[in-house]
Specification:
By secondary structure, the protein is an alpha/beta fold. The protein has two domains: 4-48 and 302-393, Aspartate Aminotransferase, domain 1, CATH 3.90.1150.10; 70-296, Type I PLP-dependent aspartate aminotransferase-like (Major domain) (Aspartate Aminotransferase, domain 2), CATH 3.40.640.10. It has 14 helices and 13 strands. It has helices at 4-12, 15-30, 49-61, 64-68, 77-91, 105-117, 133-140, 160-166, 189-206, 267-280, 288-296, 304-321, 343-351, 377-393; strands spanning 36-37, 100-103, 123-128, 144-149, 171-177, 211-215, 238-243, 256-259, 325-326, 333-337, 355-356, 358-359, 368-372. The chain has a seven-stranded mixed sheet, with helices on both faces. It has a four-stranded antiparallel sheet with strand order 9-10-13-12. A hairpin with a 6-residue loop joins strand 9 and strand 10. Helix 3 crosses helix 11 (288-296), helix 5 packs parallel to helix 11 (288-296) and helix 8 (160-166) runs parallel beside helix 9 (189-206). The longest helix has 18 residues, at 189-206. 45% of the residues are buried. The model has no long low-confidence stretch (mean pLDDT 96). Bound molecules: pyridoxal-5'-phosphate. The site of pyridoxal-5'-phosphate has 13 residues, from helix 6.
Amino acid sequence: MISARMMKMSEGGSAIRAMFEEGNRLASLYGRENVYDFSLGNPNIPAPEKVRSEIIRIAEDTDPMELHGYMSNSGYPFVRKAVADNLNTRFGTSFDENNIIMTVGAAGGLNVILQTLLNPGDEVIVFAPYFLEYGNYVANFGGVLKVVPTTEEDMFQPSAKALGDAISEKTKAVIINNPNNPTGVIYSESKIKELSAVMQEKERLYGISIYLISDEPYRELAYDGADVPYLTKYYHNTIVGYSWSKSLSLPGERIGYLVIPKEADDAQLIYSAAVISNRILGFVNAPALQQRLVAACLNEKTDVEAYDRNRKTLYKGLTDCGFDCTYPSGAFYMWVKSPDADDNTFAEKAKKYNILFVPGSSFACPGYVRIAYCVSHDMILRSLPAFKKLAGEYKL
Ligand code: PLP
């Protein structure tokens, strides 16, 4: 028999994955071109050409023993140094290879740092709506998730007051995700300063360290020149988790990193323990070839303009139909108010028109839905008449 915990999780499943499967089912019935699947955050832009050429070059030029062998559990020193240098150039930070741990994507990095920090019963604060896997990652190590809602009136920006109210002497970490999945909102510099001030005040009050875990897979996806603040500059106990899943369209390759700055309390201890976490969680180290690849592609960029075009077309199309949307500043998600009292019912009704998106309940925020626009522009255009019919059901 499997464990009680996994039994519960298996029964729950993932609503996002279920949608994805439903998309495949509808496609087999009606043809792929007649199904408008906006469920998954799987980038539709191919990885830059340099990714392909570098994979070939690395495979051809590297000694096979070196190419495929084990290395330090934190990753290749030259890769970590290249990452640190790149961050320093871009953000004026002063990291070196001893601040970087290469990880198996952002998900791997989050699990590594949570295992490193959490004692059973420690609290981790997240702002809703949030990427629901955070709850599972925190539960993996006996942590307790505390959810602080954001509101439409505050344009889904986190409230420093609400954060302050949620922090207790048991708070170990706060996770923020900027740009945000699912709202597409970017937390502004002034907001980050407010949050930092509250965390510092509470650290002093309770005599504890509160770590700010900045989950940044969407950092590179910001529109209209929007600035995404680099959090280590605002708060000493910041740990950054990054991934190339979205920024270079490499989600299946599982590659990212953690930054543990020297300013963080117990930085050295955390770094050494996180390296062990990487090993004992079974990752051992981030994939060797992918490490070499990202080091060679640090200046490569995905086609943000293509996502921007999708953003504009979808926003205009949906608002013209009468839907109430948050105009995204980053990531590739449109956060739409459900015209139905129940967002699950709304998502079900959309299926009648072969439209698939994810109910906000899957992000701990009922009353909204998430539409992932990392899809072809053509599909967005083709979907608009179907959205019009869906809007008709609600007399929008
Ligand atoms: N964090 C957020 C907010 C995400 O949306 C995702 C993936 O969609 C992840 C983490 C996991 O990213 P990765 O594929 O790098 O593990």
